[in-house]
Amino acid sequence: MKTLIHTCLLGACCLFAGIAEAAPLEGYHDHAALVSEMQRMAQAPECELLEIGRTAEGREILVLRIAGETELLNAVGDSMPRPAIAVVGNVEGSDLAGREICLELAQRVLDSLDDDEQLLAFLQQHDLYFLPSPSPDAAEYFFGAADFERDTNGSPFDDDRDGRVDEDPGEDLNGDGILTMMRVEDPAGDWMDHPDDPRVLIRAKREENEQGRWSLYSEGTDNDGDEKWNEDGQGGVDFNRNLTFNHDGGAAGCGPWPVSEAETRSVVDWFYNNQQICMVLSFGPEDNIRAPWKNEHGKLMHESAEGSDISILEHIAAKGSELLGKENFPGSSNPRGSFADWAYFHYGAWSISTRAWWVPEYKPEEPAEGEADAEGKEAEKPKKSDEKRGADEINALQWFESQGIDGFVDWTDVANPDFPGRSVQVGGFRPYLRSNPPAAMLSELATKQLDFLRELTGMLPAISFSEVEVDDLGEGLYRVTAHVANSGYLPTSTRKAASIRQDYPLNIAISLPDGASLLNGSLRGRLDRIEGLGGESEYSWLVVAPQGGRISLVVASPSVGMARAEAEL
Amino acid sequence: MRFAILFLICALIVTGTALADDGYPLIGRPVDPKVPAAWDFYRDYEAQTQLLQDLAAAHPDICRLDSIGRSWQGREMWVMTITNFATGEELHKPGFWLDGGIHANEVQASDAALYTAWYLIEGYSQMRQIREIVDSQVFYILPMMSPDSRDIHLHEAATTHGPRTGQRPIDNDRDGLFDEDDDDDLDGDGHIVSMRVRDPNGRWKEDEEYPWMMVRAEADEVGGWTMLGEEGFDNDGDGMINEDGAGGYDPNRDWGYDWQPGHIQWGAYRYPFSLQENRAVADFALAHPNIGGAQSFHNAGGMILSGPGAEENTYSRSDRAVYDAIGQRGEQMLPGYTYMITWEDLYTVHGGELDWWYASMGALSYTNELWTSFNFFRTANDGNWQGDRQDQARFNDQLLFGEAFVPWHEVEHPDYGMVEVGGYKKSYGRQPPAFLLQEELHRNMAFTVYHASQLPRIRVDNVSVKQLEHGLTEVTAVIVNDHQIPTRLSVAERSALVRPDLITLSGGSGLKVLTAMRDNDMFFRRPREQEHDPQHVEVSAVGFSDPVYVRWIVRGSGPFTVTADSVKGGISELSSQ
User: What confidence score (pLDDT) does residue B3 get?
Assistant: First the structure.
């Protein structure tokens, strides 16, 4: 069945993608394939497919729920949702790898349900939610024109705020079907050739007497005569810049205000309506596994991750780096208004965000022959400079070459009326290839991510009544003290959730036997946040009751779960 | 018969004087309106809807009623559009937004917005100034911003302070249950008042002059009463009273500029425009960029509020000057009202509607806080926004015959046993009594119309043509704005909220525009040339008494036509001789 879908998808790619013959990224799921794949998974008895909204272009925003078996009851006896981890892919429109891995993770979890004891035990009490594509209009660009890496949705937006909408997109000047870069020979330019590979440009250091050679633009003409090139292309708003925390009002791609877009509203509302989600694992350019959040001194408390949360996130980051690797990590990019930030700073959950993939370090094959021979060969190679600038680009070119990927458009002369009498060349990296690997590599990445997800499932808080003390004070008066303990690694909420009042405190309820009444304490009370690994909280009541009556106790919070106990008076 | 009516209308228009049935020339209200309306009571959703629909049916040439969406509970969000539809495209006229009652308990705010619509529509045929403004501009009036809670306040038990929220259920105490512990009308009289119990150690006492009023005992004095808060009991058994009532947010903290979440400032819901009522307004505003002025009616305290809501968002000097001039006129028109800056003179507001109209939409905006305690005895007072408590009690005693107060009486309380309940009715504190209501509505309407009359109006004042050498021709246009609000506020320029005004040259024969320039100086001593697309000259803004001079160097012969197109200032055209 799966193979069939893949075959269909390849057909679709060839038909619709303008650069299909040159695209090394065949095998990714376009929206239709993603939907049918999720519909297929939803046939499994553990699964449920939720449509949480639609985009402006009418695409479904889908969540696959893999549900636990136990029914949980809250403090007043109503059925309550199970605490959950949400896995979110593709928060950045061009990051298709994150979407594929999210989808594949859901499949792997389903495949493991036969024999994976840890996941089975987890799913007894918890749910997993998979939201592979929060902004499918943005992502779908990859399967259509794909002429540049578009992170934004398709809603027309006046990026440069000049009253004209989408009036200055890029133009394909060299006729290769994609938009790359444009360099203009210019002694006042900031860029010069890399000494080892003139395809790569590096920024000239004037203060070190380096002469620039090129001015650098994206490929296209200045359609609106404002001396800016391609500053207002098609689209749109970037989901990953459209959230409420630290939103950059007025900047291109951010939206006129936070959560201005249909998909952002759908996702944010869905999270707020599902307070059982205590942890969010997302795939995007922000990576707090390899670059953990720090306490940002000098910032206000609500702008910085909080003390004990930071220590815990560092521990998770260390685990993540161990399982997922961090070699050649290109750094974390934290856009303002990002999803991963929102999930922690405003939603209050444990937010863990990871890049899905980056170009690995190119390692030349070790010569098989003896050492002397190798030295001989070494001598024949052209000497490489020790230039540090442009190292990522040089590495990418070498890696592409080693993989047989046509990842770079060589610079060629083009005519551009904006620069009369000057040499103008177009070239550069092909879109999408430096952030998304060939589909064949996705499987191994998903394997590592599954190990990490399993690790995370073992960290959630686990509450129980460690003890219910009943002190008989005589004459039918009892003091009942309930001790609730958390044996999980994580506390019952983040410190942040408590300080921004996004936590759901543990509610504790007591049921009394007939004829009993309370002299102190309430039928329903609440407990403070409980630390992990044996942390405890308590609540007491004074009860007047006939001897031998039974009381029952429930403690519950949607993002933590529930526990029950009974005691005899 | 029809002819006779037509004749009568013509006669009214010609004379400009309205005559009441008895022939006496009454002023200060439309005479013999097609839709008669009294203004000494509050209309609920149904009654407001009826009046709006009647107006729309009676005056289809100058008004139109649309619903821009629905409230949480499904009520229509009515917007009355008022303009002479025969005098040009709606979006090409300067637009003015007016809303009321975003805080539903502030009931007269909605009636004041409704009154404004009624007055403009019914006054159109009788009043020259009204006719001029309705011919040349367009009003968008949304009287009920929170219609669900309006009916709760009017028809269910409430205090004068509630409901400020809408009716979307919120788990205020985060115990997993929604709206499970609201206040309770223990005596079923429709008013939520205070609870008190006799207590020899209590710190409250009855006022000596007005014993129904509870005041704090002096430090060295025995009180005798303990106050127990607003009427209600512990509905959910958690030991707290009235901690999770219906709703639980502030719709006026939900707007897209400088929005901050609930932990920074109470009241914000999930994100800007997370409340559908407000989102409908935002969508409407985005579709009506011609709106250049906005007002919101609230209560209370007699304030004409301008932004910014937060200290860090300063206004430019030139925008402030316009705010000051119009706001000070308002102080004159609204005795007892004070023109204020929100953060500085009142309190900090993030994500308020007032700021959003200005800083996101580029419209000059005020919030009017209706009802001032100045009206108790028409003297300045030193009390807070509700006025001096003694004055409030004296006014109740002397002018309302004590009817504003629910006398203290005993009720059985489920948690406390026997207590007494009593206090001012929900209709006293923030609202004028009936005999002052119409004046309140009228004066605020008049200020709104004054503000609207200052919307920018771009005009091509003059086009002159001069022959140069070598067959070149110079065309010069003078672009003016006759009103106080500039065609683009400086915030709209700075944040590029609104495109520049476009001054276009067309017409003539063989027209070829070689270049163009503009200057604020009639002698063109330091002009700025526009090389790109010189036929459409971009002008940053045109201020009051601050013309912009535009000059084109062209080939071809006239007459030439100059069109000035301003997003907020309308469109004007003039041809050369």
Answer: 46
Taking CA atoms, B156 is separated from B148, B162, B185, B231, B362, in Å, by: 12, 11, 9, 14, 39
Residues of A near B (Cβ–Cβ under 8 Å) read: 74-76, 80, 160-164, 224-226, 243-244, 249-250, 256-260, 264-265, 268-269, 272, 302, 346, 499-505, 507, 521-526, 556-558
Average pLDDT of chain B to the nearest whole number: 94
Q: Distance (Å, rounded) from C-alpha B552 to C-alpha B513? A: 7
Q: Six-digit token pair at A287?
A: 């990576």
- DSSP summary character for residue B81: E
pLDDT of B187 reads 96
- A118's tokens: 């840890």
Among A142, A347, A171, A133, which Cα is nearest to A245's? A347
B239 vs A522: CB contact, 8 Å cut-off?
Answer: yes
Cβ-contact A73, A80 below 8 angstroms: yes
Model confidence at A280, pLDDT cuts 50, 70, 90, reads very high
Q: Is the pTM of this model over 0.90?
A: yes
Q: What is the DSSP letter of B414?
A: T
Task: Report how far residue A557's alpha carbon sits from residue A73's, in angstroms, rounded to the nearest whole number.
Answer: 10
Cis peptide before B157 (omega within 30 of 0): no
User: What distance in Å separates the CA atoms of residue B358 and residue B371, rounded to the nearest whole number?
Assistant: 24
Q: What structural domains and CATH numbers belong to chain A?
A: 29-151+234-357+437-457 (3.40.630.10), 463-568 (2.60.40.10)
Instruction: Pick B499's closest partner by Cβ from A162, A250, A556.
Output: A162
Ramachandran quadrant class, A331 (left: phi over 0; alpha: psi -120 to 50; beta: rest): left
User: Distances in Å between the alpha carbon of B548 and those of A239, B262, B496?
Assistant: 42, 46, 19
Backbone region of residue B276 per phi and psi (left: phi > 0; alpha: psi in -120 to 50; beta: other values): alpha
Instruction: Report yes or no: B175 at the A interface, CB cutoff 8 Å.
Output: yes
Judged on CB neighbours under 10 Å (0-12, 13-18, 19+), B88 is middle
Q: How far is CA B326 from the centre of its chain?
A: 14
- What is residue A105's DSSP assignment? H
Residues ≥6 apart with Cβ < 8 Å to A1:
A40
* CA A430 – CA A22 distance, rounded (Å): 10
Name the residue among B66, B50, B67 with its Cα closest to residue B118.
Answer: B50
DSSP notation for A409-461:
EEEEEE--TTSTTS-EEEEEEPTTTTTS--GGGHHHHHHHHHHHHHHHHTTS-
CA distance B425 to A401: 82
- For the four alpha carbons of B368, B371, B373 and B377, in that order, the dihedral sign comes to positive
| Mean pLDDT in residue range A286-313 | 88
Does the CB of B360 have a partner CB in chain A at under 8 Å?
Answer: yes
Strand partners, B305: B340, B367
Which ipTM score applies to this complex? 0.92
Q: How confident is the model at residue B19 (pLDDT cuts 50, 70, 90)?
A: low
Beta pairing, strands B417-424 & B405-413: antiparallel
Amino acid at A218: S
Residue of A225, A257, A523 lying closest to B532 (CB–CB) = A225
Mean pLDDT within A541-563: 94
**Are A174 and A426 in contact, with CB atoms under 8 Å apart?**
yes
Contact residues on chain B for A244, CB-CB shorter than 8 A: 259, 261, 271-272
DSSP character string of A491-522: -SS-HHHHHTT---PEEEEEEPPTT-EEEES-
State the helix-helix crossing angle for A96-112 and A31-41, rounded to 10 degrees. 10
A371: confidence class by pLDDT, cuts 50, 70, 90: low
* Whether A244 and B261 lie within 8 Å, measured CB to CB: yes
**Mean pLDDT of the B312-337 span:** 96
**Who's near A411: CB < 8 A, 6+ residues apart?**
A183, A199, A425, A426, A427, A428
